[in-house]
Amino acid sequence: MPRYNHKTDKHILYQEAVQSADAEVEFIDRLYRKAYGRPATLFREDFCGTQLISCEWAKLRPRNIAYGVDLCRKTLAWGLRHNISRLPERVARRVHQVNKNVLEVTRPKMEIIGAFNFSYFIFKHRCDLLAYFQAVRRSLLPKGLFVCDAYGGWESQQVMKEKTKLKGFTYIWDQEVYNPINDHTICHIHFKFPNGKMMKRAFTYDWRLWSLGDIQDTMLDAGFRETEVYWEDEDEDGEGTGVYRKRARADNSPGWNAYIVGYPSGQTHGAE
Ligand SMILES: C[S@@+](CC[C@H](N)C(=O)[O-])C[C@H]1O[C@@H](n2cnc3c(N)ncnc32)[C@H](O)[C@@H]1O
């Protein structure tokens, strides 16, 4: 049998380079408890890719159930083989796959819906972003919440490459295009190996760089009653610490990360 070289698999490299599923799950669990005073069980991961976060959610508590929605059948199949089927059977059977467009899924209704790693930036027009948020709003139980992430700051509008050395490979974030007329941006992920070989354009993103103001306004137009922004703390060198706090104001900074949370009925006001 050929030896499986995990460093040539773009999904393994992606998961190691950009995902922190345990931190993400801890964060959404905390948000829900804070809003409604009890833990959630039903979670949907939109644009789920390989469903790393769904798996982490199912592992968190024995009653937790996760649904992952993704258009790409091949990526879902990869997630089933490499992530879901490696869980104990009692956990794996609580992770479901939905091979559909996120715009078309509204059932079953959920307590938490998440869209991570900026995936909803594929919606470049406000009407499309609104249609997505409306579909999410219709998919939530009254005591529900939607959480998505965003990045920004003036460095996100610069054509540049950022290299991060990781165990066994270098992760390269390549901002190739930014058009200030419409905020459209094209970015790539490349991987470089110690032998000098490159995996070029392992992933390409053709996105609109949405602002936090626009995202929150669009959520409210979609019927959410309340929005919040959790802003990442920075250390003295201006690097993100991975700790997010609810903020109404923040100092402008060259590069920032944040989570936006939408509540369908306002916190604690959701009727069962
Ligand atoms: C950037 S990856 C996100 C992976 C994962 N969510 C994460 O946190 O890293 C974007 C995923 O969204 C999927 N996708 C793009 N448009 C979609 C749509 N309209 N409905 C469902 N999935 C979509 C792609 O197939 C891809 O797997």
Key traits:
Rossmann fold; 7 helices; 12 strands; 8-stranded mixed β-sheet; 4-stranded antiparallel β-sheet; 272 residues
Strand arrangement, major sheet: 3-2-1-4-5-12-10-11
Helix content: 25-40%
User: What characteristic shape results from the CA principal axes?
Assistant: globular
Query: Which ranges are low-confidence, i.e. pLDDT below 50, for 5 or more consecutive residues?
Result: none
CATH class membership of the largest domain: Alpha Beta
What amount of the residues lies in strands?
Answer: 25-35%
Oligomer: single chain
The hetero compounds bound to this protein are:
S-adenosylmethionine
CATH topology of the largest domain: Rossmann fold
Write down how many β-strands occur, each being a DSSP E stretch of 2 or more residues.
Answer: 12
Main sheet attributes: strand count, strand direction, barrel closure = 8 strands, mixed
The number of helical elements comes to 7
Under CATH, the homologous superfamily of the largest domain reads Vaccinia Virus protein VP39
Supply the helix-strand structural class. alpha/beta
> Architecture of the largest domain, according to CATH?
3-Layer(aba) Sandwich
The total domain count is 2
Distance N terminus to C terminus? Answer: 54 Å
Order of helices and strands: HHEHEHHEEHEEEEEHEEE
Radius of gyration: 19 Å
Average pLDDT, to the nearest integer? 95
